[in-house]
Design a protein that fits this description.
Blueprint (H helix, E strand, L loop, with lengths): L1 E3 L2 H15 L5 E6 L5 H13 L2 E6 L19 H11 L3 E3 L3 H4 L18 H4 L3 H16 L3 E5 L3 H13 L5 E5 L19 H6 L1 H15 L5 H14 L3 E9 L15 E8 L2 E8 L6
Parallel strand pairs: 1-4, 2-3, 2-5, 3-4, 5-6
Antiparallel strand pairs: 7-8, 8-9
Bound molecules: adenosine monophosphate (AMP).
């Protein structure tokens, strides 16, 4: 795996790799903020399967963190990350410094209005502007055929699908399923912040989603009732504080009054100082 830190070199390396791999070659991009875990690696695996070349990026993007958020203490485990990505089959790793991505005086931002203020965007003002800006830059630098993102960040998927569609960017967004621990906890770089006790409390998120799924299986379709099930489940965990539980259309992120298959049920909760998210897409009716 080749590790590259400048925009110019990455652009050239991607073009060269494509030329060397032949006319029909396809390039995958997996953007990450590092602290690589199995969830990230499942995206790499999907890229490996579908494309001939795989690029990944590690960049802890300051633009998507609020002033009181965890940018400074976000886990940075570069050497381990390199080993994992290399073993997973990444060909090119882009790992720029902040200065390289945002030179002094940079004033251009990408804003997906509306969508960016919903779900996590409501709790984290400016977050999706940061995400949309950095992803637009990465897509322009790497020029992949397919960019891979996790369903774990469902609102991010909606924002990026709008970005790519509305700006006519020549790339396909591929969405990979949420990778979970065997006990249900969705993998996240932020899980590293949890103490063993908080790790147990954090299971409240996936349990809350399960309680909603069970209620849907029993025939409940009313969104308010379903949200109440999830909030009750979250509140059972002494260390958990609900940020939001929403039942929405996965494309518009606007609330729906009653669920049907394809609806997005998304939640966020604080476990101590750590904010975690999880979600489910209501599966086709199994009755
Ligand atoms: P991050 O490094 O947290 O910005 O994540 C980079 C990419 O990995 C994003 O597209 C995430 O949605 C995705 N991702 C993170 N955790 C998981 C997971 N547990 N399962 C699947 N994808 C994930």
């Amino acid at each position: 795996m080749r590790v590259i830190t400048t925009v110019q070199e990455m652009r050239t390396a991607c073009k060269q790799a494509r030329r060397a791999a032949g006319e029909d070659s396809t390039l995958a991009l997996i953007p990450t903020m590092g602290a690589i875990h199995q969830g990230h690696l499942s995206l790499v695996e999907a890229g490996r399967t579908e494309c001939s070349l795989v690029a990944a990026s590690i960049f802890v993007n300051p633009l998507q963190f609020g002033p009181t958020e965890d940018f400074a203490r976000y886990p940075r485990t570069f050497d381990e990350d390199c080993k994992k990505l290399d073993s997973a089959g990444v060909d090119l790793l882009f790992a720029p410094e902040v200065q390289e991505m945002y030179p002094e005086g940079a004033t251009t931002f990408v804003e997906v209005a509306g969508l960016s203020e919903r779900l996590d965007g409501a709790s984290r003002p400016g977050h999706f502007r940061g995400v949309a800006t950095v992803v637009a830059k990465l897509l322009n630098i790497v020029a992949p055929d397919v960019a891979y993102f996790g369903q774990k960040d469902a609102a991010q998927v909606a924002v990026l699908q709008a970005l790519v569609g509305e700006l006519n960017l020549p790339v396909r967004i591929a969405v990979c399923p949420i990778f979970r621990e065997s006990d249900g906890l969705a993998l996240s770089s932020r899980n590293r912040y949890l103490t063993p006790d908080q790790r147990t409390q954090a299971l409240a998120l996936s349990r809350a989603l399960r309680s909603i799924q069970d209620a849907i299986d029993r025939g409940e379709t009313n969104s308010a009732a379903l949200r109440a099930f999830a909030v009750a489940e979250l509140e059972k965990a002494p260390g958990a504080r609900t940020d939001y539980v929403e039942v929405v259309n996965p494309r518009t992120l606007l609330p729906v009054d009653s669920v049907r298959s394809g609806a997005l049920i998304a939640l966020a909760a604080w476990i101590g100082d750590t904010r975690l998210i999880d979600n489910l897409i209501v599966p086709p009716d199994r009755s």
